Structure formats: C-alpha cells, structure tokens
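Bumping my old thread because nobody answered last time. Still need a sequence for this structure:
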C-alpha cells in the first residue's frame, strides 16, 4: 500500500486537517521557502499532531549540528535532505541520528536516479528539482530502471494525477501545493487526496 505525505504544514488548522485525514507523514519545511516554519512553531505543531502521523523535517544544505539538535528534541521522526548534500555528508549524519533519512534528487534523466542507487539514505525522493513549484518530472523515466531504494514521488501531485502516480508503484507520494487553495492548505483537498491514496 502506498503511503502519503502532506508537506509544508505551517498552522494549527493544517494540523487539525491532517489529524482528521490521517496521512502517513507530514512535512515541516525548515529551509527558506514560502512554507518555512520556525523551530518554535514546529514544536508547538508537533505537540498537536496525531501520534500515528510521522513528522518529516525538510532541510536544504543545513549543518549536521542543527539537524541533529532538532532530531534530539523529538520534533521530527524523519530527516529529508533537499539540497546538494553528498553521500559523505549523509554517512556522517547517519552516525549522529537514529531516525531514517530521505534524500531528495532532481530527476531530469535516469542517470540522476542511478547515481543514488547505493546511497546509505533510507529512502529516495524523486522530484523535478524546484520545490513547491507544482510541476511534475517525467514519470516515464521511472519505468526505464529498477529503483533499488523505496522512493517517494514528489512535485506537481494533485487529485487529477494522483492515480497515475500511484500506478508507478512508489513507496509514498509527497503532496504540497496540490492540496492548497490560494497558497493555504485546504482541508477538503487533504481529505480527498488522502482517501484516494488509501483506497487505491
């Protein structure tokens, strides 16, 4: 069964919406972004979050010290690296944290995926490289290779294309702008897309 992550939560209302929908994961974006959240706010929202939902912290070229500190405060259950982090960086980070790591990669060709096949990261996240743009990458690339790691599909997912994405057999789907209206998370869209994934 494919899992679903609702990324970019910033408000108490967002938490109430996901607590009702019960996706598998939610994302707090700590990197510069229109959905960036402060550490203080993340602490507050995590306390409200249903224990059945895992919180993912999204970082871009962050210091390992900062990531380790946030993990140790039990604010996040998984680390997502969305920058130019190297394999050596991931290996070192793994020694200081006990939670899983997702490595996001920008997919333009199948080589972009193949070069990360042996990473020590626990999951790959396949994206178009422009976070929060609402644009998909070429999903047909997935069909040309056998991906060794469990992977998330991200970028441009919405209720119109979610079934097509599910047919690519990912470990999980990562949705952000596709469950927003006028730049804000939309409870009905969150409920609808989560139900669709769970019923697939």
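Sorry it took so long. Here it is:
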């Amino acid at each position: 069964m494919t899992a679903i992550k609702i990324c970019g939560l910033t408000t108490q209302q967002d938490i109430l919406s996901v607590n009702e929908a019960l996706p598998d994961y939610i994302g707090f974006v700590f990197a510069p972004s229109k959905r960036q959240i402060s550490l203080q706010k993340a602490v507050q929202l995590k306390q409200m979050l249903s224990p059945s939902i895992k919180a993912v912290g999204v970082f871009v070229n962050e210091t390992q010290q900062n990531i380790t500190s946030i993990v140790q405060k039990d604010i996040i259950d998984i680390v997502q690296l969305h920058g130019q982090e190297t394999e050596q960086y991931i290996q070192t980070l793994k020694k200081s944290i006990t939670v899983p790591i997702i490595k996001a990669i920008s997919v333009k060709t199948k080589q972009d995926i193949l070069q990360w096949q042996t990473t020590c990261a626990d999951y790959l996240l396949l994206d178009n490289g422009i976070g929060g743009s609402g644009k998909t990458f070429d999903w047909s690339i997935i069909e040309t290779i056998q991906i060794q790691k469990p992977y998330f599909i991200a970028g441009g997912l919405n209720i119109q294309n979610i079934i097509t994405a599910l047919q690519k057999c990912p470990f999980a789907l990562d949705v952000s702008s596709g469950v927003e209206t006028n730049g804000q998370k939309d409870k009905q869209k969150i409920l609808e897309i989560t139900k669709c994934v769970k019923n697939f």
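The chain has seven helices and ten strands. Let me know if any region looks off to you.
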